[in-house]
Amino acid sequence: MEAAITTEEVLEKKPKKNKVKEYLKDWVPYRIKRYWVFAVATVMALVMPWITINGNHLFLLSFDQKKLHLAGVAFDMQELYLMPFLLMLLFLGIFAVTAVGGRAWCGWACPQTIFRVIYRDGIETKLLGLRKRIKNKQKDPDMSKMENKVKSIIAILLWSLLAFLAAANFMWFFVPPEDFFRYLSNPTEHMTLVGMLVGIALFIIVDVVFIKENFCIYICPYSRVQSVLYDDDTIMAVYDPIRGGDIYEGKGYEREKQFTKQKDLLKVDTSAECTTCESCVTVCPTHIDIRKGLQLECINCLECVDACTTVMGALGKPSLVQWSSEKETLRHEGKTNYFRGKVIAYFTVLALVLVALFVMGSKKEHMLLDINKSPRLYKVLEHGVVQNDYIFMFANTDRNEHTYYFEIEGNDKIKIKRPSEPFKIGAGKKKKKVVVLEATQSLSNGAHKDTPIPVKIIAYAVDDKEKIIIERQAVFMYPSIDNLKK
Fold first, then answer.
1. Which of 66, 172, 210, 430 gets the most CB atoms within 10 Å of its CB?
2. Is residue 312 part of a domain?
3. Which spans in 230-373 are helix H?
4. How deeply is 128 buried, as exposed, middle or buried, from its count of CB atoms within 10 A (0-12, 13-18, 19+)?
């Protein structure tokens, strides 16, 4: 067994420049690509709550207003039948992404990862120089030095400011920004809002500064379900043991279960290309060695791929760690199959759910009506007139004030006694109306049994009947002949 060599020694032994350029030509590190994805995701998260269409937000789940805004359309709480579709899109989307790209969400879009990169790589390393290099994530700063202690405090203070911004941004998807700042201007009357803002910000500070990637390893449940969703064609960071050699004691790719730390590079095999420079280990944010194989801690950030590409590219060879599948890189059994049955099934179901969401969303009602019958079945007046009482709860879900009324369709023997005139309801307001329907003609020949008569109610906005009109069903109870005579 030979001693491991350093990255610097590898770079000193690199071949001719033209061969190096062959493997590093037009190569852009995944780390840089991730930064661009992080920037786009951050801008979208910050901007989205401020975008409105016809006064409605792109996405807002307002518990205060009891409304769901989706793609510029406001849905009332009674229309939250759309939420199951949104949840299905969320979970099926995560399953589909995992089946195709492993924990791509974790490494490329998760707020936890983005926050850690901003804090560790941006504030601690680039801005304050508390850490020496982005590529060395295993060596913590020497906190015995006063200078580093001061820098650490400054880093926490700077991150605290960003944490409050992140907490506010999160809340803007539940409390619209225009209301959020209005509430904060009078904090004593909105202590729940203030408490949630401070609580979320404190959690973000503790998570990013103290818990770190341990959140991904021990707390996040996603890592526990990912292995169930993986198959041989799932894309992930994979070390090639055929080219690189078996680094750890044990046989094959299953040796990660032994968690052995003893290095044993088989130098007797001259085909082994791994230099044991440890660059892929040093750069890993979750402190794993990708050469052990698939591990729950891997978040697919691909930092190890960048590290190995730099070292092996300097030697004129392709990287030993690839963003690839076990089928292609581990066993060399052919190209990765991206369009396999499981993936096609996931995206087919996603498409169907998305279509269903748009179809259901397009049927939004601009008014809502709940009809409840009073406990009294009926009231018999003189001359055989029968009345039924109801409570109609109208809700104007449109953005404009409208005048409402309703009609009875399909039964000209039942008339509206009360209310006798149309009534106005303001935008986003509700109004309860006591409704009395009466029948002046006989509706049943039953001698001993009351008869329920189906009634179709057509409610509408008098000033916009073509757009705002809904249909509801009610029941008119007509007494038996015996009860009618009483």
1. 172
2. yes
3. 241-244, 279-282, 303-314, 341-362
4. middle
